[in-house]
Amino acid sequence: MRLDEKVAIVTGAGRGLGAAYARALAAAGCAVVVNDVDESAAQAVTAEITGAGGRAVAVVGPVGPTETADRLVAAAVEHFGRLDALVTNAGVLRDKSILKMTDDDFDTVIAVHLRGTFTCVRAAYAHFKENEVAGRIITIGSPTGQRGNFGQTNYAAAKAGIVGMVRTWAMEMKRAGVTVNAVIPVAATEMTRTVPYFAAAIDAMDKGEPMPDFFRKELGFGTPDDVCGLIEFLVSDASADITGQAIGVGGDRLQLWTHPEPALTRYKDGGWDADSLVELADELRANAQSVGEKFPPLPAELQPPAAD
User: Fold this and answer.
1) In 3D, which of 168, 92, 93 has the Cα closest to residue 137?
2) Would you state the pLDDT for residue 123?
3) Is pLDDT at 307 greater than 80 in this prediction?
4) pLDDT, average across residues 242-262
5) Residue 56 forms beta bridges with which residues?
6) Which helix or strand (DSSP H or E) is residue 31 part of?
7) What b/e string do you get for 67-77 counting C-beta neighbours within 10 Å, with b at 16 or more?
8) From CA 46, how far away is CA 30, in angstroms rounded?
9) 155 catalytic residue (yes or no)
């Protein structure tokens, strides 16, 4: 797939998944605005892309403020003459259980993930609509936003909110021909390096070896590069009729997430009082939905070494 006439913004592109997205888009011919709060990281990725013959420019700044969003759009137009796509990848973590989570822990994560996605999408869509560009917006969600995860109240709220915004934006942007989707990546990051369960997968990746099939197939867990094909596809013209979706990808697995639908529907003349709900309680319990990610036991050969 070639994206030679496209120009894209990738936020949080100084390292990890964002850097992989920026490199992949550039390798496909897309010009990339590389955003990160870390100037040295943003410049390093930009230099890597241009050194390989690609087109890129760095814009340093934290996402969240409207000023940063406007600067990103302006940089795309100034340096490359147009804007076709936005990938809102920037994010931070402040993981703590709820009684230990401070106001600042909560507000920081919401500001970067949720507000940062909102302000950048608003700025990009304004440009698309004003210039009649059938643009592409790719937001980044997480399995935590879909299922929940212990110690991630702030992150779960932000990622679930992003998918909620995507569903709304898909309706608002349809007439303008702009598509908006959420990608739910499952990939090795700095966060997963600290989890013993993923040690064998991370070790293989660091050695440049294939990850064991258990991770790639059973868990749908892979490298950042495994996510890039979906990003390229959603930026391309081939995805022009796909919008409002949450699409998971990792390792050898691709998933299309359902939108929330009722698991049980019952009616009662006159409405539901407390006593009536007591009578329905067993049926509610039988249809209760699970929470959190549930990982299968690691095969014996992939168990991390026992601590001394």
Assistant:
1) 168
2) 98
3) no
4) 97
5) 32
6) strand 31-36
7) ebbbbbbebbe
8) 13
9) yes
Q: Beta strands of 122-262 (E only): which ranges? A: 136-140, 179-185, 246-250, 253-256
Domain ranges in the chain are 7-187+224-256
pTM of the model: 0.94
Q: Which of the following is catalytic: 21, 125, 155, 267?
A: 155
Residue 202: count of CB within 10 angstroms of its CB: 20
Burial tier of 131 (Cβ tally within 10 Å: 0-12, 13-18, 19+): exposed
Identity of the amino acid at 27: A
Q: How far is CA 137 from the centre of its chain?
A: 12
CA distance 231 to 224: 11
pLDDT tens per residue across span 126-147: 999 999 999 999 999 999 999 9
Average pLDDT, the chain: 96
- To the nearest 10°, the Cα dihedral for 67, 162, 242, 23? 60
Alpha carbons 217 and 210: distance in angstroms, whole number: 12
Average pLDDT on 194-219 reads 92
Domain made up of 7-187+224-256: CATH architecture = 3-Layer(aba) Sandwich (3.40)
Give the pair of three-digit tokens for residue 7.
């120009």
Question: Is residue 152 scored above 90 in pLDDT?
Answer: yes
Mean pLDDT of 101-119: 98
Inform me whether the pLDDT recorded for 193 exceeds 90.
no
Per-residue pLDDT of 44-69, as tens digits, reads: 999 999 999 999 999 999 999 999 99
Strand 136-140: give its sheet, edge to edge: 56-60, 31-36, 7-10, 85-88, 136-140, 179-185, 246-250, 253-256
**By the 8 A CB rule, do 292 and 153 touch?**
no
